[in-house]
Design brief:
This protein is α+β, with helices and mostly antiparallel strands and 248 residues long. It has one domain: Aminoglycoside 3'-phosphotransferase, Chain: A, domain 2 (Alpha-Beta Complex). The longest helix is centred in the C-terminal third of the chain and has 21 residues. It contains eight helices and ten strands. The chain is 40% helix and 18% strand. Strands 1-2-3-5-4 form a five-stranded antiparallel beta sheet. α3 packs across α7, α4 crosses α7 and α5 crosses α7. This is Aminoglycoside phosphotransferase (APT) family kinase protein. InterPro entries: AGP_Transferase, Aminoglycoside_PTrfase, Kinase-like_dom_sf. Keywords: Kinase, Transferase. One of its GO terms (molecular function) is kinase activity.
């Protein structure tokens, strides 16, 4: 009999693995609608949808292994990281999905969220004020006009699967939509700055590296409270707090 593995679980959603099937349970069916729609539109490999019966979406497991994990050294080759960059470029060149995604928030909304999170981090003594202030300054470079592209919106390395040097698929499309291309590239390389050159080489066009670094700070500042409140530890080695410290 197959064992049930809890891949991730918090009060918003949970993902279970049973053999070669992933069961995604989400109380917000709008997120699942976005995920299914994005996987249908995406020009890169995605998991096969086996069935959907709200609140459960069943997906086939992808072959290969994840490109890596935040906070852990990646064992994937430079060619695999470059292949990930090429896959992201193919996604960004595809026709736009119908609505903004996580990477498509307006600049005023994003700046307001950033100010609120920075105040919370300092007021509650979660992070030193100088660390927050410095990263807030770095993050400013991301708050600029951008041309919308088809973004994944949560392109963590754990969501990108490889077999050798080839991309076998990308998971978790619930945040997909129109957004800032450099947000995806920053999310993919968060905590793995040593592979940024490989990703950009695969992406195949010049990008503003200062904006990618700004997104590392911005994404980390916005993520710390959410991670704490959902039972994760952003201060684990190599994770968000270390990313913020690396900007000092």
């Amino acid at each position: 009999m197959e064992e049930v593995e809890v891949v991730v679980a918090h009060h918003e959603c949970a993902t279970l693995r049973v053999g070669d099937v992933f069961l995604k349970i989400d109380a917000d069916q709008a997120r699942t609608d976005v995920e299914v729609g994005a996987m249908t539109m995406a020009p890169i490999p995605t998991p096969e949808i086996l069935w959907r019966k709200p609140p459960v979406l069943a997906l086939a497991a992808l072959p290969g292994t994840a490109l890596g994990r935040l906070g852990e050294p990646s064992t994937a080759s430079s060619a695999a990281w470059a292949a990930a960059g090429a896959a992201v470029r193919k996604l960004h060149d595809a026709p736009l999905p119908p609505r903004p995604g996580r990477a498509g928030r307006g600049l005023d909304e994003l700046a307001a969220d950033l100010d609120g999170e920075c105040e919370w981090l300092v007021t509650n003594g979660v992070l030193p004020a100088d660390l927050v202030t410095r990263n807030r300054q770095v993050a400013e470079a991301a708050l600029r006009p951008w041309t919308p592209v088809f973004t994944h919106g949560d392109l963590q390395i754990a969501h990108v699967f490889v077999d050798g040097d080839e991309i076998t698929g990308v998971l978790d499309w619930s945040e997909a939509g129109q957004g800032d291309a450099l947000y995806d590239l920053a999310t993919l390389t968060l905590g793995h700055e040593e592979h940024l050159g490989d990703v950009i080489a695969g992406y195949g066009t010049d990008v503003d590296l200062d904006v990618i670094r700004a997104w590392w700070s911005l994404r980390s500042l916005l993520g710390v409270r959410w991670l704490i409140e959902h039972g994760f530890d952003p201060s684990s080695p190599g994770c968000e707090v270390d990313v913020l410290r690396s900007r000092m």
